[in-house]
Amino acid sequence: MYSQGINVKINTEKLEPLEKKTSVLCVFCYEGESKLLGIGKTNQKLDNAIQETIKETKAKEKTLEFVHTHNLIPAQKILIVGLGKKNKITTEILRNTAGLITKKIRSLGILDFSLVLPKDLPMKIEYAVNALVEGANLSMYSFDQFKKEKISNKEPNMTILVLENVIKSITKSLIISNGVKFTRDVANLPPNECTPAKLGEIAKKLANQNKMKCTVFSKNEIKSKGLGGVTAVGQGSKNEPRFIILEYRNGKKEQKPTLLVGKAVTFDTGGISLKPGEKMDEMKFDKCGGCTVLGIMKAISELRLPINVVAIIPSVENMPSGDAFRPGDIIKLFNGKTAEILNTDAEGRLILADGLAYGIKHYQPSTVMDFATLTGACIVALGTNVAGIVSNNTKLVSKIKTASAITSEEVWELPINDDYMDMIKSKVADIRNIGMGRAAGTITAAAFLANSVGNVPWVHFDIAGTAWIQPSTKNKSYNSHGATGFGVRLVVNHLMNQK
What we know:
The chain is built from 14 helices and 18 strands. It is α/β, with parallel strands linked by helices. The chain has two domains: about 10-160, Leucine Aminopeptidase, subunit E, domain 1; about 175-495, Zn peptidases (Aminopeptidase, 3-Layer(aba) Sandwich), CATH 3.40.630.10. Helix 3 links the parallel strand 5 and strand 6. Helix 4 packs antiparallel against helix 8 (about 290-305), helix 7 runs antiparallel to helix 9 (about 350-365) and helix 11 (about 395-405) crosses helix 14 (about 490-495). The radius of gyration is 24 Å and the shape is elongated.
């Protein structure tokens, strides 16, 4: 069903690089230095060619230059890979470089290549391996499910030459990056192929494959359980809403679970508060929060992490019709509070509020994280390369930022206090679904959600800018047109390090 593109076969060997028989031997070089990292001298003729190439490229970041070996060593070619300045090297540079290498070699029709991992990179070897594997694997992603002509399915084979045993890191990184690919695949599905009901089927299939419990509430069940936000937003479409629950239990029985909640609006017209027609097609990506949660659950279940996690994905299609909810309506949310509807395009917070309140009541989680393409205001504030986060717990934010630094999925914390909570108070209901004018739109949306959270440690991710490629998105070799899968690697890294 899914089109995750080409998977990269990755293995490791403990072998001297100059003894490796391979089509391409990829070797790093720092800017301003004259030697290749991880290999010694070859012979005069080849060394001269290498030095000449380094002199020409200066080994600046993103430079890739081939040197033919003329059978002087077993490798047919050496690819000199510039990393830039040594004091500026990061895992993100390695991740991006690995993607560039893989795409370059793939474009030449070469199927096997080897990469020399030097010992003196300024980071843990595990982090370096993770970045290289993620960059290589994710760079081969393509969404061609609906194309008549498919991309060739021949898989490149990358060998990492390293003195240490890093096979566990490789396996782990492939699982995580395949979780990202899964998120991209579901997020990229067009709205006629991914209704709320279809998303429920995808979740059930994922659960069956990975030994998780999956429950999907129908429209009538959603209404009978008092999920007023999901009911209201979903009532305008013939494609009925679903409320999806996934349970992964591999921790101690008494261990409270982590709760993940993801907004999945499979298509968002804005409802009665209709959006402009321009770029409305991109509103298939309004399900990216829920898709992120699915990718996380796939990865942690395949990693068999010794934790308990519950995922809730409220899913609707927001359409205008004679049955649609309206500006001026007052609805009752699962948390018992009433909400005045002032804009039907502020629908994501309504279904998320229900998901958060339901999950906290029924599963009593230790921490809560929610994910949503929630506000255009977040793009105005932070652009398309950094996600906004809002939280009630400094320790949780600190852990999220630590994981963010490792995965290079950038986040920026925005404040929340009583002043922002006051901005969503209504004169005719308990709360209103938008703030006062355009001020602090991302924060007032989070303030709406905070009403369903209480004191449970919680962090809200607004991924409106980062969930798919937009005109101002930074070019990264491991991303491609469409959904990015932002947040999967970050949250899995966070959950892997929970004690």
